[in-house]
Every structure is written in structure tokens, then in C-alpha cells.
Amino acid sequence: MRKFIATVAAAALVAALGVLASPTLADGHAKGWVLDPELSNISFGSIKNDYVGESHTFGKTSGTVTGDGMVTIALGLGSVQTNIDIRNERMREFVFNNAPNATITAAIDMAALNALPVGGSTNIETEGTLTLLGVENELEASFFVMRLSETQVLVDSNGMVMLSTEDAEIDAGIDTLQELAGLDSITRVSPVSLRLVFNAGS
């Protein structure tokens, strides 16, 4: 199964919305859900030269799901933040090939879903399809979901999600980063954690 650090937010959005029936309007038509980027955080780790661990983030994530269950999500690859400017530039150029976004699409059967009550929580698994640099990746992950209010949902990863650069077909870019930085090694598996909040659409 192909997995990639930039897909976690997208998979989590599918997870969150996949366990919730959308809030209904007065006329009975369902609303959708929208990611709240200000309250959300996605981070992934790396280890260089076997002993030096670092944490990185993506700053720009957006996503929507319609009332009929069509999910479309974009993660801004150019928003990667490694806390070193030159490394940010190299990640964008050599790993992400200057692509603007990774995208995911999925279809959810909204009519078959049960709404969580406010304060209610559940653990769920989800599947989706990511398109990254022209390559389709199957996604599968486990998440903790809690309904914070009638209009807000929290999604958190169940532990660390371990993702392989080989499966994502970006090892060549990692090789380039390693060479340019003069490193002996960079890990080829990244631990990923996330905290995502979604608001009901209007």
C-alpha cells in the first residue's frame, strides 16, 4: 500500500466526515464540512545521521465535503515547514517537484451514517485515493473522532502513523536532499501525527 506524509490530513478528513451524518438545514438538505486550518496541525518526523530527530509541518490544508458525500481535499505541498529555509526550498523542488498540491477524492454514503452526539467519540478506519505527482496512492488509517459541538468535529491520529518514502516513490528526492546536505543518512520512514478540526458548512 502506498502511503505518503502529505496524505494524512486528507485521509483524516475522509475519516471525520465518514462517521458523521451532516447537520441538516431547516428544509432538510444536508450541509457539508470544512477544515479549520487555524485549529489544525499536521506534523511529521525525520531522523538524520541516525541520531538527530526533527519535527516538520505542513501549513496549508483545505478540504470540503458536500451534503451528498463527495469529498475533495488539497494539501499545499509548498507550505512545508522544516524550520530551515533552504531545506524548505529543497523539499519543494526535489521531493515535491514544485507541485502545488496533493489531492484526495472519495465518496461517502451520507444516508447510511449515524451522527455522533455532542461529546460523543469513536475510533474509525477509513480509505481513500490520493493523487500525488501523477501517482495514485491507496490510503488506510485509523483515527479517533470526537464531536465537540453541533458544528465542530475533532480528528486525532491513533498513535503515530508510519509512512514509507519508498512506497510514495520519493526516494530519489530524499537521496538528493541527503547529498546536498552532506548527510550520512536520512530515515526512509516518517512518523506522522495530526490534530484536525472541522466546522459544519453554511
What does this structure look like?
By secondary structure, this protein is of the alpha+beta class. The protein has helices spanning 8-18, 85-95, 171-181, and strands spanning 33-35, 41-48, 52-58, 61-65, 70-76, 80-81, 101-107, 121-132, 135-149, 152-157, 161-164, 189-200. The protein has an 8-stranded antiparallel beta barrel.
Number of strands: 12
Helicity range = 10-25%
Rg calculated over all Cα atoms: 17 Å
Characterize the largest beta sheet: strand count, sense, and whether it forms a barrel: 8 strands, antiparallel, barrel
β-sheet strand percentage: 35-45%
- In N-to-C order, the SSE pattern is HEEEEEEHEEEEEHE
- Structural class, by secondary structure, is alpha+beta
Low-confidence regions: 1-29
Q: Taking strands numbered 1, 2, ... along the chain, how are they ordered across the largest sheet?
A: 1-4-5-7-8-9-10-12
